[in-house]
Design brief:
The complex is a heterodimer of chains A (510) and B (382).
Chain A (H helix, E strand, L loop, with lengths): L16 E6 L4 H16 L7 E7 L6 H15 L7 H8 L2 E5 L5 H18 L5 E5 L6 H10 L13 E5 L7 H14 L5 E3 L7 H11 L13 E9 L8 H26 L8 H14 L8 H4 E7 L1 E3 L2 E3 L17 E6 L11 E6 L6 E8 L19 E7 L3 E9 L7 E9 H5 L6 H11 L8 H21 L6 E3 L6 H8 L9
Parallel strand pairs in A: 1-2, 1-4, 2-3, 4-5, 5-6, 7-12, 8-17
Antiparallel strand pairs in A: 7-13, 8-11, 9-10, 11-12, 13-14, 14-15, 15-16
Chain B lengths: L1 H4 L3 E4 L9 H15 L8 E3 L3 E6 L7 H17 L2 E9 L10 E11 L6 E12 H5 L2 H8 L6 E5 L8 H8 L3 E4 L9 H9 L5 E3 H4 L2 H10 L12 E8 L4 H15 L3 E5 L7 E8 L2 E9 L11 E8 L2 E9 L2 E6 L2 E7 L5 H9 L6 H14 L2 H4 L1
Parallel strand pairs in B: 2-6, 3-4, 3-7, 4-6, 7-8, 8-9, 10-13
Antiparallel strand pairs in B: 1-5, 5-6, 10-14, 11-12, 12-13, 14-15, 15-16, 16-17
Helix pairs in contact in B: 3-11, 7-12, 10-12
The chains are: A alpha/beta (510), B alpha/beta (382).
Chain lengths: 510, 382
């Protein structure tokens, strides 16, 4: 026990360290990681001694050419752009790369030498944060090589910190998730592993904890006595964006529900954690996932609707159907839309239906959580023949236009007692006068700090895959030759309306 | 922060306004802002406000550099923390315009919204109080001008707030007070600060917050299993500071002793040296010496604060020494690092982070109590 540590953990100053990105030439690095790092530098949130070493098969002409490539990426994708040249100059001098094949020991020898030089030059005590921004198939290979070259250690080191960020997907079913966890743990202890789900880095998703557990007025209503149903929608207007081959293998159930939607579901419905430390929060999430009522194979079709987009129009553009996308089998039955009706078997939620919906090629990109509260027990204003009841819905807009809206009924000004729906709105942009940080900014900073609350623990991945795998196995056993279609630019197939109409509800129109 | 400063457009701040008409003057500025930004694509002008920031500025005869520093700080803070800033500016009684004890100016600072939310503007009112009578108007004016239902932060960053009715009244309406013990140069300032902290809902001290990166590294020396226990078996502590960093030295000692559970100490007379202090610390049947001294005339680089710390405990030695402005060396019997980077924060960043937490840092309160206790012994008063 070190009494000097007391009170220090809440300070958000990362220790001096080197971030090693495997896959530095990839899309994720250019679109998300490098812009996030640049913004962190802009906001002076990076440690005084900090460097990035990228590892990639790509070989640039020179370090300067590599840095220019990264500058262009930030100029395209950073929150504040174009980049501030003076700031970029100071940030870029700590960007380095090592080229080589991930399976070659030589690559790791070069990496080790580069890291030792940086340690010496910058005064970094050997702290490393590895980021696997590569296809999941390479993770075990990279882990093995890092271990062989003694670039990682499972042993507790009081002086140095070694951590790893792992990008999704964490497996493609329960079995492969377990195998991935096993391989990672050959080189790292679980507290060193940071499984990233960028949804957890979104300010509005984190705000769910603040909203629910930091206010006294909502939590008493957050249960089966007052909530009629919950809807979580994650809609994308884009199609598979050239990733037809990947999507054919994955499908949207794996790509979105197992990770993003289940994380949002957890934060929306879990019990209050005893503290805000990483294990307390994640314990509650695991409890929630384990409380999901299993869907019997013969009930899957009644509880899970899958569909695929056909050609249509999205945001003023004609777009092809999924089967016409490059890399997609013309007879594919892979789902690009999925809607689920779930129940949580615990005291809080009883028989409250929880609806999840996610899809490609919907009318717009939007992610919302809607809590529909039960109607007033006595419809007083219906009796006079003038008014009606108005649904009370709390909507949390995760993206875009982040905020919270409460819909309720209000008297229409005038001599009659008619009610009309009105909104009470909170918007991040206008209330705080500044935009929320990008998810990757928050998550990379947290990993550098060793704060793992917003990352996914091994038992979380296994609990969520346990549920999803049962659906996947049933679908596989059905050997369907066709799948319902929905025109691109619509909110999904009629079957999904039936799914929710069974309970007397309707999908929200976000 | 300086990059963002160029994007700020200020409206107002010309002629003084009638004290009863401050809110009307703001309304006029809002209309002006609405017209001025009406041509933008995002034409909405949004008033953003999270805090009432009451800044007490130095009075007549203040060091111009200090005044300029505070002005820069305020500009930087308000860009990150949307606020209504109420600047309290004491002025010499002789400068008062005829018949006026207090004058007011209003301004609105506008910036392009960062999330597509139009133009975001924040308000600033400057109150100039002429002489003591003028300053006595400050508390009721703050009460009247604060945005209702938003917290009040009182920024007193240029020295020790004096005891008295004015400060007491301002503290009463304050949810968070921010001070900077580094600039409290009077003898025994930390004793007064310890007493002051009891009268305010919450306090943040920039002098303490600047120590945080160093505290991280010192804590790290005691991370290996078993070494934390050596803090309960201390044999000697030495702290060396720059001449102007003495308060930081006291706070660092206060932190170490309070965390390790030492509360009894007695000053040792070293024979009149003003820059060297020694105490004998007792716990149970054992006692050990601690020394705090400054390095006279030290100005190797632009740094003020702790230069060296040496701790003996449980038969082991732990040391940290500043090697340049941004690096320290760390040393213990089991590990040596000759150059470890030290993360430095700008003062505006410290203030912004202080506004984001609630309550007073308990570790600080305990460290300050011990630091003030050390000051309160014969060593300081001899």
């Amino acid at each position: 026990m070190n009494p000097l540590r007391e009170g220090l953990l809440k300070e958000r100053i990362p220790e001096a360290q080197v971030l090693v990105i495997f896959g530095i030439s990839g899309d994720l690095t250019k679109r998300k990681l490098m812009p996030a790092l640049y913004t962190l530098a802009r906001e002076r949130l990076l440690p005084a001694a900090f460097a990035v070493v990228g590892v990639s098969r790509t070989d640039w002409e020179s370090t300067e050419a590599f840095r220019e490539d990264m500058r262009q990426a930030c100029n395209r994708f950073a929150r504040r752009r174009p980049v501030d040249e003076a700031l970029w100059a100071s940030f870029a001098k700590n960007l380095h790369y090592v080229s080589g094949e991930f399976d070659q020991a030589e690559c790791y020898g070069k990496l080790k030498s580069a890291l030792e030089t940086l340690d010496k030059e910058l005064g970094i005590p050997g702290n490393r944060l590895y980021y696997f921004a590569t296809p999941p198939s390479t993770f075990p290979l990279i882990v093995d090589r890092l271990k062989d070259c003694k670039l990682v250690s499972r042993a507790y080191e009081p002086w140095t910190r070694t951590r790893v960020i792992v990008e999704k997907p964490f497996g493609r079913d329960l079995e492969s998730a377990r195998e991935l966890n096993r391989r990672l743990k050959l080189a790292f202890r679980e507290p060193q592993i940071y499984r990233i789900d960028h949804y957890l880095g979104k300010e509005t998703v984190q705000n769910m904890l603040a909203f629910r557990f930091g206010n006294g007025i909502f939590e008493p209503l957050w249960n089966e006595r007052h909530v009629e149903h919950v809807q979580i929608t994650a809609a994308e207007s884009v199609g598979v964006e050239g990733r037809g081959g990947y999507f054919e293998e994955a499908g949207i159930l794996r790509d979105m529900v197992q990770n993003h939607l289940f994380q949002v579901l957890c934060l929306t419905t879990m019990e209050p954690p005893v503290a805000l430390d990483s294990d307390s929060v994640r314990d509650e999430k695991v409890k929630l996932l384990r409380s999901l009522r299993p869907i019997a194979p013969e009930r899957i079709d009644a509880s899970v609707v899958r569909a695929q987009y056909a050609a249509g129009h999205v945001l003023g553009q004609s777009v092809p159907g999924y089967r016409q996308e490059p890399g997609v089998d013309p007879g594919s039955v892979r789902e690009t839309y999925v809607a689920l009706r779930l129940y949580i078997d615990n005291w809080r939620w009883g028989n409250v239906p929880i609806f999840l919906r996610t899809a490609k090629r919907m009318p717009k990109k939007v992610t919302t959580i809607s809590i529909k509260f039960r109607d007033a027990p006595h419809l007083l204003f219906r009796s006079n023949g003038h008014g009606n009841s108005v649904a009370n819905i709390l909507t949390i807009r995760v993206q875009p236009d982040e905020g919270i809206a409460l819909h309720f009924g209000s008297k229409i000004p005038g001599p009659t007692m008619d009610l009309a729906p009105v909104n009470m709105e909170f918007r991040y942009g206008t209330s705080f006068g500044r935009e929320p940080p990008e998810a990757y900014e928050r998550l990379i900073l947290d990993a550098m700090l060793g704060e793992s609350t917003l990352f996914i623990r091994d038992d979380e991945t296994e609990a969520s895959w346990g549920f999803i795998s049962r659906i996947l196995e049933t679908w596989q056993g059905q050997k369907r030759r066709d799948i319902p279609l929905y025109p691109a630019g619509t909110w999904g197939p009629p079957e999904s309306d039936d799914l929710i109409a069974d309970t007397g509800a309707a999908w929200s129109q976000p | 922060m300086s990059a963002a400063a160029s994007e700020r457009i200020t409206l107002g701040q010309g002629e003084p306004v009638d004290l009863a008409g401050v809110e009307s003057a703001f309304s006029a500025l809002w209309r002006q802002a609405g017209e001025q930004f009406a041509g933008n694509n995002e034409s909405t002008v949004v008033r953003a406000c999270l805090w009432n920031l009451v800044a007490y500025l130095p009075g007549p005869g203040a060091d111009p550099q200090q005044v300029a520093r505070l002005e820069r700080l305020l500009a930087d803070i308000t860009q990150a923390v949307p606020s209504r800033v109420i600047r309290l500016q004491p002025r010499a009684a002789g400068l008062a315009p005829q018949g006026a004890e207090v004058q007011a100016w209003v301004a609105t600072h506008c910036m392009a919204g960062q999330s597509g939310g139009g133009t975001v503007c924040a308000e600033e009112v400057t109150l100039a109080g002429y002489g003591e009578d003028g300053a006595s108007h400050f508390p009721p004016l703050v009460r009247a001008l604060r945005v209702p239902d938003l917290p009040v932060a009182l920024l007193w960053l240029h020295g020790l707030p004096p005891k008295g009715r004015l400060v007491g009244q301002l503290m009463q309406m304050t949810d968070r007070m921010l001070v900077d013990s580094h600039f409290m140069t009077s003898a025994g300032a930390l004793i007064a600060l310890r007493d002051l902290i009891r009268g305010v809902a919450a306090m943040g001290d920039l002098g303490w917050m600047r120590l945080t990166p160093m505290r991280y590294l010192i804590a790290k020396l005691f991370d290996p299993p078993g070494h934390g226990d050596n803090l309960s078996r201390l044999e000697r502590i030495e702290v060396e500071t720059t001449p102007d960093g003495l308060n930081e030295g006291f706070l660092l000692l206060g932190w170490l002793l309070s965390r390790a559970g030492y509360k009894e100490f007695k000053a040792v007379d070293l024979g009149g040296s003003e820059q060297r202090f020694r105490w004998q610390v007792r716990r149970g049947n054992t006692s050990f010496p601690i020394d705090l001294f400054t390095r006279p005339g030290y100005s190797a680089y632009d740094y003020d604060g702790i230069l060296r710390l040496s701790i003996m405990g449980g038969g082991e030695r732990y040391a940290m020494e500043q090697v340049d402005e941004e690096h320290v060396s760390l040393e213990s019997s089991h590990h040596t690092q000759s150059r470890v980077a030290l993360h430095g924060w700008e003062d505006a960043e410290l203030i912004i982070s202080a506004l984001q937490v609630t309550g007073t840092d308990r570790i600080y309160v305990e460290a300050l109590a011990v630091a003030a206790g050390l000051m309160d012994t014969e060593a300081w008063n001899r």
